[in-house]
Amino acid sequence: MILNHVIGVRFPVAVPMTNMIKFDLITIFPDSLQAYLDSSILKRAQEKGLVEIKVHNLRDWSSSKHRTVDDTPYGGGPGMVFMVEPIYNALCELRKENTKVFLTSPKGKKLVQSTFVELSNDINAHYIILCGHYEGFDQRVHDHLVDYEFSIGDYVLSGGELPALVLVDGITRLIPGVLGNEQSLDMESFTNDTLDFPQYTKPSEFNGWSVPEVLLSGNHKEIQKWREENSILETKNKRPDLSK
Questions:
Q1: Disulfide engineering: 108 pairs with which of 1, 33, 150, 177, CB 3.0-4.6 Å?
Q2: What's the pTM value of the predicted model, to 2 decimals?
């Protein structure tokens, strides 16, 4: 048995036997996650054996007969706070040698595409994601049990389930073999600090709105030039902060 150290805490862990990225999502609303995880790209990625995604109910690690995982905050104030004990118990059971623990929080670092790229490169990674709710977590979770806190924007949601799905989806779709056409990754928004160029499909004219003639020309050199120019223009007009 291997011992893993996270900020002074010793967790007993098993040697991982994996050749895929594994996710463990811990939430008090497991049903809210499962439908999305069982559809589209994430479903196919699991069926191909490229990822493994498991959803856990935090209440399963409660020591209370009522499966309580939250309590009122010391010092008073509105709302409830997740207790440290059930989270510690969950991590003791789920953590492996190569585990990184993520926590959803509006205080966390905002997710960007380069983070997804970095996290998808470790094909033997194991990511545990703690989904926040209520008034958040006991501070001792932040201080001693978590490797990385993240948010998906400067706003507050009812819970961390949506951010958790964003993290899983953003990583999974970059794993080789997940997408049908991996060339599409090279032309996506944010890949080169630019937004994607405008896309059109049939019919070539609808309601008086026409597709640019160059895209119908068959001249691949001119089409590529148009796409590069319009990618830069889209970025300048819609996300000038990316052009700095």
A1: 150
A2: 0.83
